Amino acid sequence: MISIRPTELEGYGVRLEPLRHDHEQALAVAAADGSLSELWFTAVPASAETRSYIDTALERQQQGRMLPWAVRNLATDTIVGSTRFHDIVADIDRVEIGYTWYAKSWQRSHVNTSCKLLLLTHAFEGLGCKAVGFRTDKFNFVSQRAIEQLGAKRDGLIRHFSTRRDGSARDVVMYSIIASEWPEVKFHLEQRLARHGRPTS
Question: What is the CA radius of gyration of the chain?
Fold first, then answer.
């Protein structure tokens, strides 16, 4: 059975810092880059919502349901987004990676690949997970492509699964990577970073 606790993860040009209240201002600035909170199919907080966003994440961390991080780009020493483990099922050694967003200026950069490599390495090699899942809104095609480019397999569509920030019903696309697939996925992600001139350690 996996045991989850806040852990700082660093490598590949980024550092994942366990989410804290003193990240509030920096996260608000990152979310404002691209007006991310205005995207109806995401859950990025508006500036005034950032405090409660952190409060909720930390409350769910205390309950053992989530493990949230702030994402720091080491080259600029700035917070550029957030991500977390969620829907943790310790009994079957499974976590999901989600609630992921980055400032618009850092989308389509090395940041997402770097973060996913750190998170997946921690899940499979640090925690001993047997499966790591991903989910995204059926209309978030950018997110779907990004997840598929990681090497995750599409498991299917779950209709009427949850609600969006505007109150509408949300259909989600589910993906996963299982432990036996991890070595190949890891190699693929390291090669992606190398092609972009990023260190693979």
Answer: 16
